[in-house]
Automatic annotation (TrEMBL), chain A:
InterPro entries according to UniProt: MsrP, OxRdtase_Mopterin-bd_dom, OxRdtase_Mopterin-bd_sf, TAT_signal
Protein name per its UniProtKB record: Protein-methionine-sulfoxide reductase catalytic subunit MsrP
Gene source species: Microvirga puerhi
EC number per UniProt: 1.8.5.-
Species lineage: Bacteria, Pseudomonadati, Pseudomonadota, Alphaproteobacteria, Hyphomicrobiales
Reaction equation(s) it catalyzes: L-methionyl-[protein] + a quinone + H2O = L-methionyl-(S)-S-oxide-[protein] + a quinol; L-methionyl-[protein] + a quinone + H2O = L-methionyl-(R)-S-oxide-[protein] + a quinol
Bound cofactor: record note: Binds 1 Mo-molybdopterin (Mo-MPT) cofactor per subunit.
EC primary class: oxidoreductase
Function: Part of the MsrPQ system that repairs oxidized periplasmic proteins containing methionine sulfoxide residues (Met-O), using respiratory chain electrons. Thus protects these proteins from oxidative-stress damage caused by reactive species of oxygen and chlorine generated by the host defense mechanisms. MsrPQ is essential for the maintenance of envelope integrity under bleach stress, rescuing a wide series of structurally unrelated periplasmic proteins from methionine oxidation.
SUPFAM superfamilies noted in UniProt: Oxidoreductase molybdopterin-binding domain (SSF56524)
TrEMBL record, chain B:
Gene that this polypeptide is encoded by: msrQ
Domain Ferric oxidoreductase: start-end pairs: 56-169
Oligomeric and partner information: Heterodimer of a catalytic subunit (MsrP) and a heme-binding subunit (MsrQ).
InterPro entries the UniProt entry points to: Fe3_Rdtase_TM_dom, MsrQ-like
Subcellular location: Cell membrane; Membrane
Organism in which the protein naturally occurs: Microvirga puerhi
Name of this protein: Protein-methionine-sulfoxide reductase heme-binding subunit MsrQ
Keywords: Cell membrane, Electron transport, Flavoprotein, FMN, Heme, Iron, Membrane, Metal-binding, Transmembrane, Transmembrane helix, Transport
């Protein structure tokens, strides 16, 4: 159960009720009403203008309640409910993302500027967690490739490394006596993966700015990879020549590969990846569904890995 | 587990108020009732099946730990909960049955091919199943008739299998999680402390046998 404390908020930041009522999602009927119930009383709401994308799936969305209450964000604790409870302490405004390394135009980008200078798209993606569950989430964001083009990577830039904020005073999980990972959280992509149109930097979901437990204010979404690749609350993006040492890969390299592409034929050493449970489907009597190669995005991404042994490069 | 105190039934220490054993069973099954009630009403969060499955397993482990704590509590603090130990052990078994049933029916949907693949390929499932199988003879002989039939010494030997089950249970827990989160580590530490205490005590008694002990340790 979540007990929300009222956020510190300027009156000008509160979205008028009329705007809520006109929102596209709300016209959907019951789902919209449930959403409105979820949003009322939440201060950070800031409705995003988005355009639709042909890359979106038309599968049934996972409810906002589930998307915002069942999270893996170990900086706030290892329980699925911990991020929703504890992530409020993270100060997400102002927020800048430092872009450095092998680029012609390094710099600091404020999230607000990135939002203003981008055409935000709604991308409804499947999200498959390495633990064997999945969701369908309507992200709002812009292609990672847009940012990459702006900073002009140099010829020797082969990989992109991402880093999450490291703020022990705002992230209780970092104060734990048992560090679960070697902080700060680091993720990475090959440059061509990062340039793939499916890869986005998300700043919102369900038409609202991201809540902290989902990785506010800006996070990576790479839907053909396991969820842990979708690094949250990004503070730094570095262009590098060598494959970055990513957090989960460092923690257990035999279990979490650098690529971490969703693949039903390559099991986690300790559990099968052949099937998944779709969150919000069936309650106690949830039925497993087959997991798809590249999480169903093979058409868009399979060519990135042609000739590679996916069992070796898991 | 050796139920006899080396110096006979010393009656000092805490006087534990006696409650009917049936009350312990009823209280012990409250978590299961709570979980099933909220599960049926879809009130266990975003991933209710997983929550139910994990909670039942955790309660089995908690009752296993409680069972193992009875002897050290009596020997160190002179708190005698011996008359409740059978109930604690059986509650552990009941939760293990519910945990396994949830895995078989709700998690795997009785897909026996998938279940068999899990058992042979996934060490945490292999260990979990083995642990459950160990608990079966212990539960089956947790009654006075079995003690009479087997004789106290044989019965006690069989019931030492609970130590193996405890190690299996925490290994099962450690192997199912990602990385090394605190909770399974804490349970592992508790189980190791409870077993380590017994080991040290038995070694100590081998070196320095009690003068009035009727027989030497084998």
């Amino acid at each position: 159960m979540l007990i929300r404390r009222p956020a510190d908020i300027l009156p000008s930041e509160i979205t008028p009720r009329s705007v809520y009522l006109n929102r596209r999602q709300l016209l959907g009927g019951a789902a919209g009403l449930a959403l409105a119930a979820g949003l009322s009383g939440r201060g950070q709401a800031a409705t995003l203008e988005t355009v639709k994308s042909p890359l979106s799936t038309d599968e049934k969305l996972t409810s906002l309640q589930d998307v915002t209450s069942y999270n893996n964000y170990y900086e706030f604790g290892v329980d699925k409910g911990a991020p929703a409870t504890y992530a409020k302490t993270l100060k997400t405004s102002p927020w800048t993302v430092k872009v450095d390394g092998l680029v012609g135009k390094p710099g600091e980008f404020s999230v607000e500027d990135l939002i203003k200078s981008s055409t935000l798209e709604e991308r409804i993606y499947r999200m498959r967690c390495v633990e064997g569950w999945s969701m369908v989430i309507p992200w709002d964001g812009f292609p990672l490739a847009d940012l990459i083009k702006r900073v002009e990577p140099l010829g020797n830039a082969k990989y992109v490394a991402f880093e999450t904020a490291y703020r022990p005073e705002e992230m209780p999980g970092l104060q734990s006596m048992f560090p679960v990972l070697d902080w700060p959280y680091v993720e990475g992509l090959r440059l061509d993966e990062a340039m793939n149109p499916l890869a986005i930097l998300a700043v919102g979901l369900y038409g609202e700015r991201l809540q902290n437990q989902n990785g506010a204010p800006i996070r990576l979404v790479v839907p053909w990879k396991y969820g842990f690749k979708g690094i949250k609350s990004i503070t730094r993006i570095s262009f590098v020549e060598k494959q970055p040492v990513t957090s989960w890969n460092k923690q257990a390299s035999d279990e979490y590969g650098f690529y971490a592409n969703v693949n039903p034929n390559v099991d986690h050493p300790r559990w099968s990846q052949a099937t998944e449970r779709r969150i919000g489907e069936g309650g106690l009597f949830v039925k497993r569904r087959p997991t798809l190669l590249f999480n169903g995005y093979a058409e868009q991404v399979a060519q990135l890995y042609s000739g590679m042994d996916l069992r070796k490069f898991y | 587990m050796d139920a006899r105190s080396p110096r006979g039934a010393a009656k000092s220490g805490f006087a534990v108020p006696q409650v009917p054993k049936i009350a312990l069973y009823l209280v012990g099954l409250i978590p299961a009732a709570w979980l099933f009630y909220h599960g049926i009403n879809d009130n266990l969060g975003a991933d209710p099946m997983r929550y139910l499955e994990q909670s039942l397993g955790l309660w089995a482990l908690r009752f296993l730990v409680a069972t193992l704590a009875v002897t050290p509590l009596r020997q160190i603090l002179n708190v005698n909960l011996l008359r409740y130990r059978r109930a604690l052990g059986l509650l552990c078994f009941y939760y293990a049955v519910l945990h396994l049933t949830t895995y078989l029916v709700l998690d795997q949907g009785l897909d026996f091919a998938a279940i068999w693949a899990d058992i042979v390929k996934r060490p945490y499932i292999t260990i979990g199943m083995a642990t459950f199988i160990i608990l079966i003879p212990l539960a089956a002989t947790s009654n006075n008739a079995a003690i009479r039939r087997l004789g106290g010494q044989v019965w006690a030997k069989i019931h030492r299998l609970v130590y193996v089950a405890a190690i299996g249970a925490v290994l099962h827990f450690l192997l199912v999680v990602k990385s090394w989160p605190p909770e399974p580590l804490v349970y592992t530490a508790i189980v190791l402390a409870l077993l380590g205490y017994r080991l040290i005590r038995s070694l100590y008694r081998k070196i320095a046998p009690q003068p009035r002990s009727p027989r030497r340790a084998a």
